[in-house]
Amino acid sequence: MLNVKLVIFLFFYVSNIYCEPETVRDNVDYLSYGNNEDVLKNPDIHIPKDEIVLRPQEVKDWPQQSLNVGQITAVSINSLGQPVIFHRAERVWDESTFNESNVYQNLDKGPIIEDTILVLDPHTGSVLHSWGAYAFYMPHGLTVDHHDNIWVTDVAKHQVFKYTPSNHKYPSLTIGEAFTAGYPYRRRVLLCMPTSVAIATTGEIFVADGYCNNQILKFNAAGTLLRAIPSFSDTLTLNLPHSVTLLEHLDIVCVADRENMRIVCPKAGLKSYIDIMEPATIIEDPTLGRVFAVASHGDIIYAVNGPTSQNIAVRGFTVNAVYGNILDTWEPTTGFTSPHSLAVTRNGSHLYVTEIGPNKIWKFELTDVYDKK
C-alpha cells in the first residue's frame, strides 16, 4: 500500500513541475567557479601518449548557401552520411509557450506549416529533400537509427514518433499521448517534454523524458516500457536530461544532464541486467557548464555546452567515456553562441553542431592534429 501511495505522489508531483523555456537564465542562477577566466577556459587536459585524439576542425564556407531555417534543434546522420536536421521554422519557445502545468498554450496556431525535417548534402550543405510540414508544434530531438528510421520528439505534444524511410506521413510508432503531459504509470505511458532519443542496434529505445520528469525511459522495440533511469531506489538524480547517446560496446547510455552541468553514463542493460545495478559514471568539470548535447563514436563522447555564466566558455568537449576525463576542447573560429545538438558520422570522419540562435549548422572534420612521437 505504501508503494502505491508513493507512486501516486510522484505522479502528481512531477506532473506539476514548471519547465522554463530554452532561453539563457540570469547568471546568478548558476554556480560561480571564481573569476580566473583563463582557468575556466583551459582545463587541465591529460592525454595518454598512446591515445589518438581527433580534433574537430571547422570546414569553412559550409553550407555554401543560407538554409533559411528557424531554430535548428537537432541533427543526426543517415546511412549515406547525410546530415538530417530538425528545425522550428518561425516558432520560438518563450515564457508564454507553456503554462505551469506544462500544457502547450499555442494550439490555436496549429502545426508548423513548413517542412521541418531537411536532408542536407554533406559536401555543399544544400537541401536534398525535406518533409514534416503540418506535423509538429515544437520540434526538439531527432535521431536516425541504424535502419534509417527517423525518431523525433515534439515537446509541445509530449510525444516521440518513429518514421520509416518509406513513410514520412504517418508514424509507425508513437510514444506518449498528444498534448498530455504526465508520468508513466503502469500501462499508460505519458511523457513530459521529451528531449532526445537513442536507439540500440537490438531495437531498444531510450527516451530522455525530459524537461519535467528528469529520467531516461527504456522501451523495447515495440514501445513497451521496460525500466526507468534512475529507478526509485537509485541515488542518482538527473536535472533536465537534454540529450542521450548510446555506447553499446560499453553497455552505457550517456546523458547530457544539463542543469546539473555534467555528463552521466549509467548502464544501459543491453548485455546484462545484473550490471544495471552498477553506479553510473559521472563526468564533471568546472568548465563544462550546462551540457546541451552529447554524441559518441567508439570510446569518445563529443559534447557541447550552452550559455551558463560569464566565466564559462561556450564550446565543444572531447571526452574519454572509459576514464571520464576531458581530452580536448574546441570551437569554430568565430565561436559558438547557443549550441543545441551535435552528431558524428558513422565512420567517425565528421561532426555537425547546430545552434538555436543564430539558427545555423556547423560542419567539422575530425583530424589527428597531435604529434605522438
TrEMBL record:
Mind giving the lineage of the organism this protein is from? Answer: Eukaryota, Metazoa, Ecdysozoa, Arthropoda, Hexapoda
Q: What is this protein called?
A: peptidylamidoglycolate lyase
The species this protein belongs to is Parnassius mnemosyne (clouded apollo)
- In this chain the NHL repeats are located at 125-166, 191-222
As its record notes, the protein acts as a catalyst of: a [peptide]-C-terminal (2S)-2-hydroxyglycine = a [peptide]-C-terminal amide + glyoxylate
User: What does the record give as EC number?
Assistant: 4.3.2.5
* Xref: CDD domains: NHL_PAL_like
- One record GO biological process: peptide metabolic process
Please name every pair of cysteines joined by a disulfide bond in this record: C192-C212, C254-C265
Indicate the secretion signal residues. Answer: 1-19
- Which is one Gene Ontology cellular component term of this protein? extracellular region
| Protein family | Belongs to the peptidyl-alpha-hydroxyglycine alpha-amidating lyase family.
Where does this protein hold Cu(2+)?
Answer: H242
